[in-house]
């Protein structure tokens, strides 16, 4: 199958540091190639992939301070795809709703994986205007604000099985936070859980420009508390050591996270996750097996005290059963094949569309 993978240009594929969507696109693209498909990745020129790279912009937009309008490079991206769309069996977009209008006019079947939040009021009009645009959710929870969308399937994210593996270390002694510093990620609750548990906390996190003021005024003063260490943003290569050395990953989110890639990254390292019951958490964490699902800080503190009841070997095994990149890719192939079966011939497609 000839597959076009269309990635955002904000980060390279995969990103050097933080970047959930581009990271998933990377894992999926390489896994599709491993399954024997002919894949072209539309992405920034500093991307690395097993597929054929169609470089749209020289560098990731986040690394180019001269870029003030991020939509402009994405318009170039969409036009490049449009011009050679006939060379593919299916177009798979990761650009949210941006391609709906253009791709709906093409004879090539397309599908969009929605990676972000859908509870913004202004999105209602967009999805109501394109009720036939086929979309994939990354959790069932993500769908709730948008029941009118043309959902084809829910496909959970996956990781290459050998990318993050448990590393034998001395007895894990700290709690970990990995991700981004912002109010909805629950960093204040994380610090409170660690403080009340009496365990050290290591924070490996990115601070976006939009959250810099929040970090300086609210979070930075808390970093002077005893046993709180701010590591900063870490690379993919640093994650196994960081996560394997943690007694648990804390994930006390304060919003309906559509997926939460860091949860399965921890599971890949055999590290249990203590998370608040929001968004996709109940779909990803098997309570009492791969971690604990809690309602508040008090519940999380109690979960920390029970963390040794969980088997790190079983956590890794559950990751392999549920969240491998190969399984993710095969689930997408099933969707692509369904799309192709429904659109056998361009003339018939146009006739069916009226």
UniProtKB/TrEMBL annotation:
It comes from the Bacteria. Its EC number is 2.4.1.-. Pfam families: Glyco_transf_4, Glycos_transf_1. Gene3D superfamilies: Glycogen Phosphorylase B (3.40.50.2000). Residues 169-314 form the Glycosyl transferase family domain. This is N-acetyl-alpha-D-glucosaminyl L-malate synthase. Keywords: Glycosyltransferase, Transferase. Residues 18-119 form the Glycosyltransferase subfamily 4-like N-terminal domain. GO terms for molecular function: glycosyltransferase activity. SUPFAM superfamilies: UDP-Glycosyltransferase/glycogen phosphorylase. InterPro entries: Glyco_trans_1, Glyco_trans_4-like_N.
């Amino acid at each position: 199958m000839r597959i076009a993978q269309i990635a955002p240009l904000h980060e390279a594929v995969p990103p050097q540091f933080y970047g959930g969507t581009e990271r998933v696109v990377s894992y999926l693209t390489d896994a599709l190639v491993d399954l024997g498909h002919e894949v072209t990745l539309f992405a920034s020129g500093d991307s690395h992939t097993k597929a054929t790279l169609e470089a749209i912009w020289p560098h990731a937009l986040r690394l180019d301070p001269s870029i003030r309008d991020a939509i402009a490079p994405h318009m170039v991206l969409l036009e490049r795809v449009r011009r050679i769309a006939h060379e593919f069996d299916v177009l798979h977009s990761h650009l949210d709703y941006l391609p709906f209008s253009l791709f709906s006019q093409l004879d090539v079947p397309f599908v969009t994986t929605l990676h972000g939040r859908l509870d913004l009021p202004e999105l209602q009009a967009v999805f109501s205007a394109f009720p036939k645009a086929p979309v994939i959710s990354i959790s069932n929870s993500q769908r709730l604000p948008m029941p009118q969308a043309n959902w084809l399937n829910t496909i959970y994210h996956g990781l290459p099985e050998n990318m993050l593996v448990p590393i034998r270390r001395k007895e894990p002694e700290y709690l970990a936070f990995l991700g981004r510093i912002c109010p909805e990620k629950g960093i204040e609750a994380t610090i409170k859980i660690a403080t009340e548990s009496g365990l050290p906390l290591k924070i490996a996190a990115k601070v976006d420009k939009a959250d810099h003021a929040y970090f300086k005024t609210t979070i930075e003063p808390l970093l002077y508390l005893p046993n709180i260490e701010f590591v900063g943003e870490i690379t993919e290569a640093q994650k196994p050591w960081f996560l394997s050395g943690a007694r648990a990953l804390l994930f006390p989110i304060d919003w309906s996270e559509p997926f939460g890639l860091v949860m399965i990254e921890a599971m890949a390292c055999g590290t249990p996750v203590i998370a608040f019951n929001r968004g996709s958490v109940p779909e990803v964490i098997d309570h009492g097996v791969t971690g604990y699902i809690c309602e508040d800080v008090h519940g999380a503190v109690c979960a920390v005290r029970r963390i040794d009841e969980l088997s790190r070997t079983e956590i890794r095994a559950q990751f392999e059963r549920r969240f491998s990149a190969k399984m993710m890719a095969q689930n997408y192939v099933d969707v692509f094949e369904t799309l192709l079966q429904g659109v056998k011939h361009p003339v018939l497609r146009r006739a069916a569309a009226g």
